Amino acid sequence: MLARILPLALTLATLSPLQANPATILNEAKRIVLLGDAFFERDYEHGHLETALTQSLAKKPPVIRNLGWSGDTPRCESRSYFGPPQEGFDRLAATLAEIKPDTIIACYGATDAFQGQEGIEPFIQSYRRLLQDNLEKTGARIILMSPPLTGGTGTRWPSLQRHPENLALYRDAIRKLAEERKHTFADLLASMDGIQTETINGVTFNGSDYQKIAPAFARSLGLTTRLSNTPELTAAIVEKNSWFFHRWRPQNEIYLFGSRKHEQGNNAAEIPAFDPIIAEKETIVTKLAQAAAATR
Q: Is the pTM of this model over 0.85?
């Protein structure tokens, strides 16, 4: 089934004038945000996607901030904690205003693809709103990335046998949305053709999977796939991201900023103390990336 889906996708990606743009955008980027669901969030634990991005842009390594949130959709339900989706929508807008990215790589569709054909229209409507009323207001250049390939042939996960077809439908809808909104499109789904992933449950990647996917991730963005094995750089990225995660998603947030801030809200003053630590870790990442690039 997959063999019938992806060759056409690769052809379309080659012919699309939008497909040549991601690398140009990223080579000019200074502050990049990775936005999406578990695909980005779980890279906090592994660092392989960001390692590939950092290595590919090692001449002028940008600041990269991972805003992935498991289960998230363009409606921002997961980001809302205990409130309505609008709360998550507003939370994202506030976070982006603080980070001030000049480039956003948005990767949505993996969650909504389980709704099949009937879910495409509401998905695109919500994605259009996210772009129009949130992301585009940042002034950042936006790359809309297709969801990654999961489910495989369905041999190990029979219930996911037709999932690659649904992912392809959502990929095509995202490509059209990118054209409509005049944004760049990156076809990760097509770039992953031929990659055999193990996954944890058919849809959630493990560390070994991320290592395999990293070159395809870079390739979908038009970046070099000549990546070297740099465990020290990857470890530095994971450490930097761990500090940033606690900076923007503190475990006791409801007490610091939420409905119970009247109890412990005074401790919120400590949150900016993470910033110089993150900056220090960022410096280490930059030095390691440039050193690795010099040896290639």
A: yes
